[in-house]
């Protein structure tokens, strides 16, 4: 998932930086590079969730309850980018809405891996919290700390780097490389 889905998210982050006279060419190269793996990426995520739920239901319960806020952020990011990607290609008008779709696609591409990093980093340093703790202690503190935030930033940077490698290889235009 990280290799293909990560590059997919990274391509969306790179699209945010597509500026200048080659902006349209850069966007087209990004779309061309992620098109073959666009929908298949989330199948891996669904498979991982089903395996986690089936094999380790207590862990699934813990993660889905304690980390429900970053998981919702991740799902919103996936939905934003999916909707923006589809609307951008099926909207017949070349107007200001295209810029909005591109911005929503890039924002979703940052939200999803950053939230994944919050969950991963939060799992690495789970603070011991009493079960009768406050909302903040139970549902915010596990993912809002230095390690989870830096893990989220690291995943965004890693996925962007991975996408740039794929895009350099995929690009046919020397100037674009």
Task: Give the quaternary arrangement of the chains.
Answer: single chain
Uncertain runs with pLDDT below 50, 5 residues or more? Answer: none
Head-to-tail CA distance between termini: 25 Å
Total E-strand runs: 0
Looking at the structure, what is the overall shape? Answer: elongated
Topology as a string of helices (H) and strands (E): HHHHHHHH
What portion of residues is helical? Answer: over 70%
Portion in strands: under 5%
Helix and strand composition category: mainly alpha
Radius of gyration: 18 Å
Rounded average pLDDT: 84
In DSSP terms (H or I, runs of 4 or more residues), the helix count works out at 8
Describe the sheet with the most strands.
none
Folded structure, characterized:
Helix content is 76%, strand content 0%. The chain is built from eight helices and no strands. It has helices at 4-16, 23-34, 40-55, 57-66, 68-90, 96-124, 135-140, 146-170. α1 packs across α8 (146-170) and α5 runs antiparallel to α6 (96-124). The longest helix has 29 residues, at 96-124.
């Amino acid at each position: 998932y990280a290799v293909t889905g990560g590059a997919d998210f990274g391509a969306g982050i790179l699209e945010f930086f597509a500026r200048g006279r080659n902006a349209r060419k850069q966007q087209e190269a990004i779309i061309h590079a992620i098109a073959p793996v666009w929908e298949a990426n989330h199948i891996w995520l669904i498979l991982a969730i089903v395996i986690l739920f089936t094999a380790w239901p207590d862990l699934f319960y813990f993660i889905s309850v304690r980390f429900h806020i970053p998981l919702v952020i991740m799902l919103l990011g996936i939905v934003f980018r999916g909707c923006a990607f589809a609307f951008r290609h099926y909207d017949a008008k070349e107007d200001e809405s295209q810029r909005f779709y591109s911005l929503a696609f890039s924002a979703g591409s940052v939200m999803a891996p950053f939230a994944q990093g919050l969950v991963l980093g939060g799992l690495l340093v789970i603070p011991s919290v009493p079960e009768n703790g406050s909302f903040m202690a139970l549902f915010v503190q596990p993912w809002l700390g230095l390690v989870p935030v830096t893990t989220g930033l690291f995943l965004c940077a890693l996925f962007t780097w991975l996408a740039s490698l794929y895009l350099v290889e995929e690009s046919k235009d020397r100037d674009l490389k």
